[in-house]
Structure formats: C-alpha cells, structure tokens
Amino acid sequence: MNKRRIFGETPQNNSLPLGVSPRRKAGFTLVEILVVVALFGLIANIAGDILITVFRSYNKAKIIGEVDKNGNFALSAISQEIRAGSGFDTSNCTTGVTACLKYKDYNGNDSSINYYQPVCSSSANGRLTLTKGGASPSTTDLTSTNTSTGVSIGATTDPVFSITQLDLAKYVSVAFKVSQGCSQSIKVSNDYKTSVEVYN
After folding, report:
1. Burial of 98 (0-12, 13-18, 19+ CB in 10 A)
2. Contacts of 128 (CB under 8 A, 6+ apart)
3. What is the 3-state secondary structure (H, E, C) of 40-71?
4. Where are the strands (E) in the chain, listed by range?
5. C-alpha span between 114 and 136 (Å, rounded)
6. From CA 181, how far away is CA 66, in angstroms rounded?
7. Do residues 171 and 164 make contact, with C-beta atoms less than 8 angstroms apart?
C-alpha cells in the first residue's frame, strides 16, 4: 500500500522511503558548533591583537611625552640659570656627583647644577639637580626620578657641562640624554643640547 506523505506528518513506522530523511529536531549539530567556536576564537584572537597594539601604542606615546616634558623642562631651567649666572666652573664637584656646573646666581650666591650618573643595578635613575646657595640652601630635582614612572638622565658623547671661549665670546654648553626610567621595559630616549653665550 502506497501512502502519500503529507507535509508535516511523519511516518508511523521507522522505515522511510529511499532518499527521504527524517525531520530534524531544533538544535545544532556538532560540526556547526565546532565551526562557530573556531570562528569565535579567530575573531577573539584578532581583537586581542588589536587591543594589545593599541595599549602598547598608548604606553609608548605616554612615555615619549614624559621624556619630552622632563627633557624640555630641565633644558629650559638650566638655560635660564646660565643666562642669569656668572663665574662658571666645571671642576671640583661634590663627592658622588658625576659632573657639575658651579656658578654665582643673580643674587651672588654659590649655586650648582649637578649630574648624577644612573645606576640601574640598584634602581637609581640618573638625575639633574639644581642646588641654590644663600641663607637657606636648597636642592631641587630638575626631572622626575621615580624609577617606575619617571625618567633617567644619561650622558651623551659630549661632556654634560663644558665651557668654551671663542674670541671674545664665552659659551656654556649642556648636553644630556633623557630616557625612560631604569625599571621600564620600553626604552625611549632623546638627546638635549644647548649652548648659551654668557657675558659675565
């Protein structure tokens, strides 16, 4: 007996005519689930790489900004001190100071700009300090010395401080390198140099 199959009806017995598949119940097959998981993993991997690149770029830009800010501030402060000072000397530095520039400030007080070499093995950033004499002497760091967020000052191929006499003109030159602090993994550095003509 040949029964007609009506749409939506399922045969009562388990034997189906050749080429007719049983109606599937709602759900996903294992292959469909594996394809979705693979696609999700691929998209997550790509998104993760993009996020890591964005965070690295942000951190590098932040570090470059910190280096530039500290370098420009130190160079500006030193140039201003040199322009207002007199009687410059780069000898007889205080013990522990790698290089120094001694001078009389605009009030006639003994002052100095000191460079301390970095010692990264003991997490000590290189630094520049300004020591002002007078009734109440004070020492100020010209750069951020925090080992994790600050910068480290280093020497370039030129001397940190030098005095040059050219004919009637006298120049005080300053050269230093500003880089990320000793404990940082991303290394960024810039050189800062200036020569200031002094008249006294």
Report:
1. middle
2. 74, 78, 113, 114, 115, 116, 141, 142, 143, 153, 176
3. HHHHHHHHHHHHHHHHHHHHHHHHHHHHHHHH
4. 86-89, 99-104, 110-116, 127-132, 138-141, 151-154, 161-166, 169-180, 189-198
5. 18
6. 10
7. yes
In Å, how far are 2, 124, 129, 153, 183 from 119, measured between CA atoms? 96, 5, 16, 11, 11
Q: Is the pTM of this model over 0.90?
A: no
Residue by residue, DSSP assigns 71-96 as HHHHHHHHHHHHHH-EEEE--SPPTT
Task: In whole angstroms, give the CA distance from residue 104 to residue 112.
Answer: 8
Which residue carries 């500290």 as its tokens?
Answer: 70
Over pLDDT 70: what percentage of the chain? 86
Residue 132 and residue 142: Cα distance in Å, rounded? 13
Going by the DSSP 8-state scheme, the letter that residue 106 receives in this structure is T
Which tokens in the block code for residue 12?
């009562």
What contacts 57, CB < 8 A, 6 or more positions away? Answer: none
Per DSSP bridges, beta strands 169-180 and 99-104 are: unpaired
Residue scoring higher pLDDT (200 or 58): 58
**Tokens standing for residue 102:** 């001694």
- Tokens 């009734």 identify what position? 135
